[in-house]
Amino acid sequence: MKMIKKRSLVTYYLLSILTLGIYAIVFWHKLAKDVNVLCEGDGKKTMKYFPAWLLGIITGSIFVTVWKAKLGSRLQYNAERYGLRFSESGGLVAAYSVLGIVGSHIILVKNFNRMAEAYNAYNGLVDPEADKKTDLFAD
Q1: Residue 81: exposed, middle, or buried by beta-carbon count in 10 A (0-12, 13-18, 19+)?
Q2: Closest by alpha carbon to 82, among 52, 32, 117?
Q3: Cα dihedral 93→97→98→99 (10° resolution)
Q4: In DSSP terms, which residues pair with 8 in a beta bridge?
Q5: Could you count the other beta carbons within 10 Å of the beta carbon of residue 132?
Q6: Half-sphere exposure of residue 127, counting CA atoms within 13 Å on the CB side?
Q7: What is the predicted pLDDT for the residue at 131?
Q8: pLDDT by residue (tens digit) across 3-61?
Q9: Among 124, 139, 116, CA closest to 39
């Protein structure tokens, strides 16, 4: 069992700009992989991001919007197992994505970070460097 690391949106945006979008693909790929760990046993599997991204190119970003909406719904559905409750649905994530609002990323990363923290605590997984660093931009 591995510790799930929290994600930073500031790092996401900075590195995505510096790498001309390559980091964005890596970020969502790794996040989706970790969501599959967090939500294991729910009978679903989050599709890898790279194929979703490719289909997004073909469909004018529609497929990526649906992928993110499903990700948001899956996080919301599985939150209860960690004693959490997320009011933001996949539909809200999709609406923000369609409108071009970064709120969809904020919702997904915030909820992912809360679930990762609960998962790590539940499984007794502790970051040995946690007391040495302060990440102002992670939830």
Answers
A1: middle
A2: 117
A3: 100
A4: 138
A5: 7
A6: 15
A7: 53
A8: 999 999 999 999 999 999 999 999 999 999 999 999 999 999 999 999 999 999 999 99
A9: 116
